[in-house]
Amino acid sequence: MDVMTSWLHYRVGNYGLCYNLFMQQKTPTKHRGKDKNYLTLFTSTLMLSAFTFGGGYVIVPLMRKRFVEELGWITEQEMLDIICIAQSAPGPIAVNSSLLVGYRLRGFAGAMVTLLGTVLPPLVSITVIAYFYEIVRANQIAAAALYGMQAGIAAIIADVVLTMGSNIVKGRNWGDYLIMGGAFVAALIAGISVSYIILACGVIGAVRFLWQNRRREKELT
Amino acid sequence: MLYLQLFLSFVKIGVLSFGGGYAVLPLIQEEIVRNQHWLTASEYIDVLTISQMTPGPIAINAASFVGTKMAGIPGSIVATAGCVTPSAIIISFLAWFYFKYRNQGLLQGIMSGLRPAVVALIAVAGYSLIITALWGSQAELLLSNLDWQALAILAGSFVLLRAKLIKPIAAILLSGAAGVLIHFLGN
Fold first, then answer.
1. Interface with chain A: mutation pick from B53, B64, B70, B181, highest number of A CBs within 10 Å
2. pLDDT (0 to 100) of residue A24
3. What ipTM was assigned to the predicted interfaces of this complex?
């Protein structure tokens, strides 16, 4: 994370709000105790989203820094709860966690404000890129770069799968092995739709939870 | 009609994308490439590549890209709105429920069943990405029509990533540079 922060500092430099957002210690109390107003909520999530590249969990520590440390609007424990719910619900973690921050601070209206702040940067940048995509694709050098990048992204996915897979294997849970193997065979060989596999595995997880709960209660009595 | 189709396709993706990050890959691939034919396999990988270099989650990037390609700026807005609508509804409900009861054991149970499945589904999506990167759109996967240059870039990036020598964004940029280098060496 330190690398990311220093990189961001390098990127955004000394420019007002970005500076407040990403620099440690320098301006820690400027906004502290300030009104939980919509504008700060909006600009905070907008800036967080604009400087989070690649999606995924990168935004979580940045969000924690902004809302817990700098603004002091959310407690450490609440932030952990928020990350926990954001992970358990469908949808991107970045969108879910900012919705929750907004909801926690200003109810449903707050959630809509943070949603807008989070969605605008990718929406605008990708729409612009999509307009130029065909032109860029037709350029030989750009096409060569994209050709190399296709192999690069394949390597990234392979790396991600290996890391996630070995985490499951380390769990030493035969049920998990069965679900993972079953889902793989169902999707690749049987060609079953991804939606059905996700729904089925969610149901299996729920049934497993209820069954384990019941057994635990029996052991207690 | 196209707007409604865009909206509903991304609502479907939004509802089913549990697990965050790369978990959405197999869903987008199935809905956008295989069912609707809005992107080719190769264009889809380009979107993933762009997504690594721009802000925001993959799902939103894909929605904005596909929306723009199919129906311009209104399409982009409609598809992106579709992508986040399920999150907004489900999260509002969960937040209300959670801050009231602070108990979501069953939800954790559902997640415990989904986590291994999501890994398997990303693996399947990754498999077809690798096939597309190495063989393009050729029907037959033979050693003779394998793209050795792509394989070299893939293997090199993979080793550097595994050894944690570079971050994903650096891997993308290096691979792009390697592609350009090969292009000039080939001429």
1. B64
2. 38
3. 0.80
